Amino acid sequence: MRKTKEQKNKLSRSVVLSIIFHVLLFGFIILGSLDEIIKLGGGGQGGEVVDAIMVDPGVVIEQYNQLQRQQNSAKQADAERKKRLQQQEEELGKQQEEEQKRLKMVEKERIKIEREADQQRKQAEEAAAKAQAEAKEKAAKAPAAKKKADAAKQAAAVDSLLGGLTAQQPTQQMGGAAAAGQGGNRKGRASSSDVANYAGKIKAAIESKFYDADIYRGKTCKLSIKLAPDGMLISIAAKSNAVNDQSLCDAAIRAAKTATMPKPPSRSIYDAFNEQGSTLVFKP
């Protein structure tokens, strides 16, 4: 704006100087148009002398018209310059307004990205803290579990010794009992529908802690999961598969570590789930 004002002041001074120059030129032209000086003298030595100046009116009018045309041309040029300056100011204002809008959109997008990053960071910190707490709890329970397992082994050894000493059944009866036991085990084996139902419960538990599922629509991840008999998560990892989406796998693993896994309904279902590879196909 300051530069524009200086240009206007320079233009005004130029117009004033042009007008002054043309007025002086007009005066010089009048003086130069004198065609003839006629001296009229009186009689004798005492007569007076009279000077007369002859001016050509046509020349004066032509020079005046030329001066008017020059002034009109200067005014027209001045008006055109002002118009161009006004257009430049309007274009500059529009450019500044568009730049302000663009900067606001950039700032808004930056704030959105920072908020999403903060949310993901908080979720990761919460998942890590929970995993660490679970690990500490598991480590604290390990000695007691080992002691209990050792006591169970000792009790089993004692029972086996006592059973060997007190056994009175013939060998054939023992063989028949063993065959009956094998048949009972085959009868108690879990069905594929029971295993699929349990896998669905595990998947639902993971999905309950899975956020922003919409951004993973159409993507797939195959997970290998290992659980304890009481349902506690031991390990989880993405399987080597070409269809796996790494971002979805990472999000699913984080969700699984924060979820509460369901306990297997029975030992047979737990064993059958492990035999089938403990694989979950995760697809939001």
Task: Please tag this protein with its features.
rod-shaped, three-stranded antiparallel beta sheet, Fusion Protein Consisting Of Minor Coat Protein, Glycine Rich Linker, Tola, And A His Tag, Chain: A, Domain 2, 5 strands, 284 residues, mainly alpha
Describe this structure in words.
- 69% of the residues lie in helices and 11% in strands.
- It is mainly α and 284 residues long.
- The strands form two sheets. The chain has a three-stranded antiparallel beta sheet with strand order 4-3-5, covered by helices on one side. Strands 1-2 form a two-stranded antiparallel sheet.
- A hairpin with a 5-residue loop joins strand 3 and strand 4.
- The longest helix is centred in the middle third of the chain and has 110 residues, at 57-166.
